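User: Run a structure prediction on this.
Assistant: Running it now.
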Amino acid sequence: MNQVDYWYSNDSFIHSEVALRRAIGQYASRNRWIYIGLTQQRPEERFGQHQRKWAEGHKWDRMIVIYHAKTFTLMQTVEDKLIKYAQQQIKSGKYSCQLINDSDSQRPQEAYNPNGFWVYVLVQQ
């Protein structure tokens, strides 16, 4: 079912944080693996890169775009806060999924970006 779904808020993070945490909880409770990421590319392009990176049998079922940030810094902040939230929930036993985020991933460099600043979740059942 490899696809990109858009369920996103472009409201301020202060107003959308609770809904974004709830979304993370829903994806974490319904899937074995999740990945929380950010991109300055079109989400479809980024999803394709993820699909090429992972081996057969480990490809992601879907990408859900959950936030459209107005700035590069906000995009990074939202991603960081949602990863920390998911890590805390998994550690406390509230979610049984695995969070597959690279601890050594390189932070993106800000560039001119006509595509926007996106935060997304990858899921695999």
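The two ends are 11 Å apart (CA to CA).
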